[in-house]
Amino acid sequence: MKDSECKIVYLCRNPKDTYVSLWQFTNNLLPKEIGTTSSLEETFDKFCRVVSINGPFWDHVLGYYKASLEMPHKVFFLTYEEMKEKPREQLKRLADFLGCPFSEDEEEVDGGVDEILRLCSFDNLSKLEVNQNGKLLTGHENRSFFRKGEVGDWVSYLTPDMIERIHRIIEEKFHGSGLKL
Questions:
Q1: CATH (domain of 55)
Q2: Where are the annotated coiled coils located (predicted)?
């Protein structure tokens, strides 16, 4: 990565919301004929113990966060929460990182920033024909990649014990790194 010309944009999400989305997504991908889903509790335990088909979540996030500090010209790290809270500011930061900053006209006069935000919004993307009716080669529907696009929906799913456990893990894994999720 250090010698490559490529740039990496790393979008991270609060681990609690990450888990709930992963659980929902995984259950959507299970073959219908199986007729069962993975329980929230069972998969939560696996997520916390890093038993995942996606690999070690905690190490992955921390690795890219550290890379963004060491090589800010190569790795752009942002959180979904930052993006939802201040989309305009984050889009401008991303454009700067990619070497394509918005001109004053694009930003204020032409409405280019606002148009990009509209086109890339969860609402717009989830309603595109390809995402409503398209399928992957595996037969899974593209709509499986879209759920709510909200921040903080984990409160509807996680128990107080789960919340306490994941907070302990977050503190343990990210302690001293400066990463706040």
A1: 3.40.50.300
A2: none
Residue 84 inside a domain? The answer is yes
Count of domains forming the chain: 1
Specify the amino acid at residue 46.
K
Residue in the structure block whose two tokens are 């335990």: 45
1 occurs within a structural domain: no
CA-angle at 79, arms to 174 and 84, nearest 5°: 145
Measured CA angle at 60 (ends 97, 71), to 5 deg: 35
Cα separation, 120 vs 164, in Å, equals 34
Instruction: Supply 15's token pair.
Output: 């681990």
pTM, full prediction? 0.83
In a domain, 47, yes or no: yes
- pLDDT (tens, 9 = 90+) of the chain, 181 residues, equals 778 889 999 999 999 998 988 888 777 776 665 556 678 888 898 888 887 667 788 899 999 999 999 999 999 999 999 999 999 999 999 999 999 999 988 887 778 898 999 998 888 888 878 777 877 777 776 667 767 778 899 999 999 999 999 999 999 999 999 999 8
Tell me if residue 75 falls in helix, strand or coil: strand
Look at residue 2 and tell me if it is in a domain. Answer: no
